[in-house]
Amino acid sequence: MGKGSKRSQQPRLNPRLAELEQTTYLSPKVAIGNSISGEPKVVRISFENYDSSVCDIRNFSKVEAKEFINTLKKINQSTQDTIKNILRPQPRINNVKPYDVLFKGLPPDVDYLLEVGMTGAGRIFFHMVGNECYIVSTWTKKRT
Questions:
Q1: Does residue 134 contact residue 127 with C-beta atoms inside 8 Å?
Q2: Burial of 100 (0-12, 13-18, 19+ CB in 10 A)
Q3: Phi, psi of 28, deg, nearest 5
Q4: 3-state helix, strand and coil shares in percent for the chain, rounded to the nearest 5
Q5: Nearest CA-CA partner of 76 in 138, 136, 135
Q6: If you average pLDDT over every residue of the chain, what do you get?
Q7: CA angle 100, 141, 118 (to 5 degrees)
Q8: CA–CA separation, 135 vs 115, rounded Å?
Q9: Tally of CB atoms within 10 A around 20
């Protein structure tokens, strides 16, 4: 081919992409994702339902703030099955005094809240939807 010859200009595929292009089936690993294979999903934390008007976070000392972060880490490292291991003994908080203030503004289908204790610092209240943990409020030890 000389300088004047025209060569078809097709982009070169990455060798791995070329191999995948030739594949006529999906491997089981691709076809069956984590959500189908039964592998537990890690809990994701959301502050969508967080209510600062009933929260004591602004009053946290440095030690309480550190414990709050450590507790959020524990929640985030849990799965739907293992989160029960870090819950306080009273697993469900119902919509009764003094907890009724925590339910204001929540979706109507939230019947109860769960609670995690922060060692020497207070409590975190939340509800779960699937693997989503919706933080509602935190109370310091002084309030509990």
A1: yes
A2: exposed
A3: -55, -35
A4: 30, 20, 45
A5: 135
A6: 77
A7: 95
A8: 10
A9: 11
Place of tokens 């959301």: 46
pLDDT of residue 9 exceeding 70: no
What residue has token string 């003994």?
89
Q: β-strands 132-140, 44-46: how paired?
A: parallel
CA contacts within 13 A on the Cβ side of 27: 5
pLDDT in tens, 110-140: 999 998 888 776 889 999 998 899 999 988 7
The pTM of this model reads 0.67
The pLDDT score that the predictor gives to residue 56 is 86
Q: Report the pLDDT averaged over residues 38-67.
A: 86
86, with CB counted inside 10 A (0-12, 13-18, 19+), is middle
Tell me if 47 sits within 8 A of 6, measured CB to CB: no
